[in-house]
């Protein structure tokens, strides 16, 4: 166990709420965990942030950098049922799957499909929209506070359609955007050329989601948030937590190196690794994994990093997202439903790269290999935020699928209110951990 930052905070902040003076260990230092640590620290808790790696170096590092209102629509939406016949060949860039993995996890797989029905979809979009809107406001403030405004863009992002037919097929998505008041503008081929002249003329239509943010280095943002936490007296410890148990009013954490830590409360923010820890606590959780790949490209011969695009773009037919990043153009694939630690399969990235080269001059690859990350997903695509079943003073905030980077601040605000017994700014019931997590 290595202490990366040592706390100098020895007394609670005056005027803080019920968490004042409480020792809280936050397990997991991705965007969700770091935001949770910051929020609890601001309320007077004495917080330690635990992770086996430095903050922001796992799943939160590898996303497309988009903080978007449009992310309220999950993968398992009603249109998934219509797509099933076309998915049988397992060759689409937007969605691949390992059939053996799905057959070994029928509870999650069938639940994922069942929750694509309209009634659950309506509840999910309502819940996620509230979480996203709350998070965007906090992100804006926090990015300014940590001096990272140079990484932030408010130019929105684009969904691209290669044909009028493709645009028409997305009508239900457009209707959801209208219903939730998302600021969108439909662009013609000429409009798109004016807005993004580096794109080749292969797209007939585009939807510009204007009330969205993006950053050019997601990992750097998480690290900056963690730096602010440490500067305010928080302690960051390099440790892999392997077990949790109650000991009277205290919570005991077992670590891989044999150390044992004691705290008043613990919060599990381990993303795709949450399932391992939860099962060691004697609970079952149907957590699946939406894996994704990315790779950076230089953006053309002699091009400067991140040149060519003014905002991230999603090629709906190509099944990829291309984002201007500090390191170059980041090409992110669609979803691969597979075991968290399964051997990487480069075919999805190869397919995405071929499609992207039809749309823009990618240039040479910068990364020698693809990055691979796993996004944790519960059957209804909503995170678990709240108290863990049958475990005193242990709380959950995991299962954010693809939008953990976007919704980390809002999740932290919601969780902290619940821990203090306050009424949160958005409904908490849709995120109750006990809707899926069961004690054995």
UniProtKB/TrEMBL annotation:
UniProt entry tagged with the keyword DNA-binding: no
Entry keywords, A to Z: Oxidoreductase
A GO molecular function held by the record: oxidoreductase activity
Gene3D superfamilies per record: D-Amino Acid Oxidase, subunit A, domain 2, FAD/NAD(P)-binding domain
Domain FAD dependent oxidoreductase, chain residue ranges per copy: 24-418
Keyword Membrane attributed: no
GO (cellular component) term, any one: cytoplasm
Pfam family of the protein (one): DAO
Stored PANTHER family: GLYCINE OXIDASE, SARCOSINE DEHYDROGENASE-RELATED
Protein name as catalogued: D-amino-acid dehydrogenase
Organism (species): Roseibium hamelinense
Lineage, uppermost ranks: Bacteria, Pseudomonadati, Pseudomonadota, Alphaproteobacteria, Hyphomicrobiales
